[in-house]
Q: What sequence folds into this?
């Protein structure tokens, strides 16, 4: 009798089981698309520039457009993982070479630790909105323990989400939608002025998953299942989540949410049976922290392929919990901007090289894969283009530097420009140019 492996191998050497169908992938990404951080970040969607709020139609349109663009990027980044069976950071060996892939791996480890801590923080804050007598630290530790356990058994956790959690999340979202539509004040005023930075923000919410999509897609039964699960599940869930967040902000009051981001949770708890259904969403949030801890683990395995992932996941879970106990999340929007600027152009370079320039046929993910220094050029130029074209504020000194750079070269940033699209477009075009030049050189040498 043949033994069927149904869990992730302990080291990078093991063959990944292909056990996840489209329903598994769709449930996973739908659950990841529903985020308590999405509720608390709805104020950024409504007023990304801090003084030019969007109309309701503009805010919802930005949610849809940004989600579709961002999830398409995530879905495409998942396909190479399915086809090669390799996690995301190991895939970058084919793009940059084995040693150079360590740089984005370290960046991803840093951002995943940050995201994991954010998630534990928001879980604890949301739980205290329901059970105010229980200290914040207790919820952080409890969420950290559950997160670590899920990360140790990742494929089992995904199956658990599909069978038991997703239905509860759907019912909860419908319940709050009906409740908020009857309670929210009429949303009037606003304009389309800040539409581009709002789309930037929503894209950043989505593409923050680009560096980890292949970590789960490598266990998918087909590329179609992986892509459909990502785009379908995540887009619908994120748009619903952001729309609910907009109405929650309207009920709680924008000024109250601006003063305390966690005030956006009060309408959920105050709704009929709100504590019950909001509790389901709070418990479900651990899939976000689990995904971050697990992807941190497989990113570290790109550096140390022989290490047992269970040991690493446990250590990362403990570290993430410790960070969450002292983390400052006031720079959440800025954090998203930096993530987008790093990984959006990197994705564009990978997508063009893999899908357009024939990289799929020669993708080398071995531990001795040669360095490809030229691929740093489009990534760097795409990174710069992101900051030249984005209008989303991040950190004052950093924004001032790029404002000076724009002035120095005489570049005028128009209101319709979008950082994520600008960075991706420049990175893709430069990659195509490099591919054309190197291809012509190879043909000349052959003749």
A:
């Amino acid at each position: 009798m043949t033994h069927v492996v149904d869990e992730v191998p302990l080291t990078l050497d093991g063959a990944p089981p292909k056990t996840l169908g489209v329903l598994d992938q769709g449930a996973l990404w739908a659950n990841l698309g529903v985020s308590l951080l999405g509720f608390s970040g709805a104020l950024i969607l409504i007023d990304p520039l801090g003084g030019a709020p969007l109309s309701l139609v503009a805010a919802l349109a930005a949610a849809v457009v940004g989600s579709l663009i961002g999830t398409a990027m995530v879905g495409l980044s998942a396909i190479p993982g399915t086809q090669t069976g390799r996690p995301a950071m190991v895939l970058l060996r084919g793009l940059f070479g084995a040693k150079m892939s360590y740089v984005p791996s370290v960046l991803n480890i840093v951002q995943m630790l940050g995201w994991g801590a954010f998630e534990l923080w928001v879980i604890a804050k949301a739980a205290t909105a329901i059970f105010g007598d229980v200290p914040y630290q207790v919820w952080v530790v409890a969420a950290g323990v559950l997160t670590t356990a899920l990360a140790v058994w990742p494929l089992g956790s995904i199956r658990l989400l599909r069978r038991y959690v997703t239905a509860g999340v759907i019912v909860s979202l419908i319940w709050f939608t009906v409740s908020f539509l009857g309670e929210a004040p009429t949303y009037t005023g606003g304009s389309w002025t800040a539409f581009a930075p709002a789309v930037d923000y929503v894209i950043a919410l989505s593409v923050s998953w680009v560096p980890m999509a292949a970590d789960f897609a490598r266990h998918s039964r087909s590329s179609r299942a992986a892509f459909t699960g990502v785009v379908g599940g995540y887009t619908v869930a994120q748009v619903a989540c952001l729309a609910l967040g907009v109405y929650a902000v309207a009920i709680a009051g924008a000024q109250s949410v601006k003063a305390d981001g966690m005030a956006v949770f009060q309408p959920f708890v105050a709704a009929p049976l709100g504590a019950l259904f909001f509790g389901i969403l709070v418990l479900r949030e651990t899939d976000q922290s689990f995904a971050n801890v697990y992807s941190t683990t497989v990113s570290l395995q790109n550096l140390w392929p022989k290490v047992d992932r269970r040991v690493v996941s446990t250590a990362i879970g403990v570290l993430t919990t410790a960070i969450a106990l002292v983390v400052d999340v006031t720079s959440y929007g800025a954090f998203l901007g930096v993530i987008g600027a790093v990984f959006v152009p990197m994705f564009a370079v990978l997508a063009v090289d893999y899908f357009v320039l024939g990289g799929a046929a020669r993708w080398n993910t071995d531990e001795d894969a040669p360095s490809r220094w030229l691929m740093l050029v489009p990534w760097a130029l795409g990174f710069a283009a992101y900051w030249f074209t984005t209008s989303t504020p991040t950190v004052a000194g950093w924004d001032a530097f790029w404002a000076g750079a724009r002035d120095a070269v005489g570049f005028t940033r128009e209101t319709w420009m979008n950082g994520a699209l600008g960075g991706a477009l420049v990175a893709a075009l430069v990659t195509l140019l490099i591919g054309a030049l190197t291809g012509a050189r190879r043909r000349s040498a052959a003749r």
